[in-house]
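Q: Hi! First time asking for a complex rather than a single chain. Here are the components, and I think there are two in total. Is that enough to go on?
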Amino acid sequence: MQLPFTANPHERQLIPDGRFTGPMPWVMAIMLFLSLLAAAAALALAHSANQGSMALSRQATVQILENDPDARIAQQRAVAASLRKRQDVHSVNIVPESEARALLEPWLGEVAEESEVPVPALIDVEFKRVPDADQLAAIRRALASTAPSIRIDGNAQWLKPWFELVRSLLLVALAILLLLLFATGATVALAVRGALNTHKATIEIIHMMGGTDVQVARLFQRRVALDALFGSALGLALAISVILLLGERVTALEPGLLSGASVPLYGWPLLLLIPLAVTALSMAMARWTVLSTLKKML
Amino acid sequence: MQSVAEFDNVGLRYGTGAETLTDVSFKLYPGSFYFLTGASGAGKTSLLKLLYLAHRPSRGAIRMFGEDLVAMPRKRLPGFRRRIGVVFQDFRLVPHLSAFDNIALPLRIAGISERDLEGPVNEMLDWIGLTERASARPATLSGGEQQRVAIARAVIGRPEMLVADEPTGNVDPDMALRLLKLFAALNRLGTTVVVATHDIHLLQEIEGAQMMRLDKGRLSDPTGALRHPPRPLVLRN
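A: Yes, that's all I need. Here is the structure of the assembled complex.
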């Protein structure tokens, strides 16, 4: 197989083909597998932050803490009607009292309908854009005459630490990806230096016959490219299997913060580019290593 | 007449040791034939290494093919090396290549196509009597056969200068004479030949060849020929 920027069939005889016998392809496969997982995690987190979680952060919960049940329900309806008239509100849903009681169950146990424990009347509001604290305070002030005990909690406020965590995880995933690419480059450099040492006598002969450093570099570029392609194919196959398996698990989750944490469609071509980038990086690293090492010879 | 190689007060030292070559000065003229003699350790191989550009001198000036070698950038050396054929004392055949591929090596490095190199390489194999062993690897060849392959590799590219370090050390007298005839034939075609040897009989085979003698790293020319223009060669026998 003639690869671009590599030696022709007769030139390549100069260095015996030792691919698949050394650890290089297997190390490349492991590096690529881990790189793809890191990249997939970064893509999934970015997608999750942009899609599912962004929808959640546009939501707010209105609580009416009125002791008198009849007044509470009346205020709940009035507040919901006022909110529906606002331009910045996308949708308003009155949360049934039974659902509100169910939300308290983990803390208070089963709360009977006749119980004297007052359960706040809840309204879920979805805004057209993520509301800021000032906007929510203005709405609360405007509705205070209708429901004096009204409280409005924006999801964006409690989601802020989650977003910060996602951003941190995204940065960590990208850092891991870069470190793995760096480690791959270093592995190639070490392997090429070892091979140069092994074939030093042959390289000296090639030099004495008038061979150039670039001719020698092409021999190693081909070997490294084949090792990288084999390692990439193996690493890619393993990584895709794991990513699809984890994707299925995430899809099976209840809608929530992690529900959007899967590799988006636009992410797959990006993931497939990584093996090609690793192969190109390996060839470039092999060339640089050979040329910089041979520079020290006459 | 422009010289092929010109050494002016050249000294060569390996590391921090004593000088292996001291104040070596001479000129090699195109189309001439030189024998380089001297006892073991006199510096013959070191002098040849300077000639085939495997080392740069520690001091002094070297001009090759009219250009200053000491100041020459490294990237220009391959082009000059292709003009020089080398027979190494230890043959230095590529162990995993066949006799054919070893002989074809300089042509492949120079970018000659497979179609164009096949004829000359087969002709050379025939000339050194190794046609039947074209696909044999060096490890399966005798010392003499390896030496013949090494010589064939050195001359296949019709170099402007041929440098040979003890080229007949492992072959029988008949083959030594045949190889010498090959060198003389190349020389008649214009190749400057430098042969390092301590085979006295070899020196007597070529009348008109000039002699350089190294003694403890210093050069002398007992025939005085280095100071005069080269004479036409006469091969005895």
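A: Chain A is about 65% helix and 10% strand. Let me know if you'd like any chain examined more closely.
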